[in-house]
Design goal:
Alpha/beta knot, 12 strands, 60s Ribosomal Protein L30, Chain: A, elongated, 2 domains, alpha/beta, single chain, 7-stranded parallel beta sheet, 270 residues
Length: 270
Amino acid sequence: MGYHIISISDPDDPRLKDYTQLTDINLRSIREPAEGLYMAESLKILERALIAGHKMRSVLTGQRWLPHLTQLLDKFEIDPPIYLGTEEIITPLTGFRLHRGTLAAMHRPELPPVAELLEGARRVAVIEDLVDHTNVGAVFRSAAAFGVDAVLVTPRCADPLYRRSVRVSMGTVFQVPWTRFASWPAGMQELQDSGFRVAALTLADNAISIDDLAAAPPERLALMLGAEGDGLSRASQAAADLAVTIPMAWGVDSLNVAAASAVAFFATRP
């Protein structure tokens, strides 16, 4: 296959707009959804995105990685623009060294409605207002590992398709169906109307053990995890059907939300 290879010599080349200011989290978190874009970093992540049916806009790489990249493109029979540059050009363009060899600009898929995602699901995760992209990616990885049917994120939750989230998730964010609520906590009512019992992971005094929940799980279960530091909002806890806690020893009162999600997903697996 002939490839559309474009050698780049100027980091200010306007054709490379998708790859600029990648280390500015606040800017990229606004730009990428607005421009229908996300970034897939590394050949492994790119392959998982392509397996999921996502479409490429272009790809940025160095000479060392070009043969590996073209092998992958051959596999999927696609020929996107390939921007080829040296480290001296790529680093000032992106803001970091391209350790993983390739960086692909991808078309962001349209998110499905909540109702569509819930159809046929039996166990889902709800993540409320997480701000750390690493934690979001870790929650998705655990959801994939322990067979969660879908993940729903609140309007203020960090972007699961942000570069760091995708990388930490090891591309599982492309595998686990997910969507974003239009409003929250009002969106919880849609879960409950669909027959889900919403279990809030919390330290509330009335919380039952995750072991007790796992021993007699509801037919449809939504496990709800809160933001770093503050945990779940009072409104969410009040609207949930039950409160659940993870028993701990040595005086430890809580876990990082990513660790808590892994424990909860494992404990309640079918």
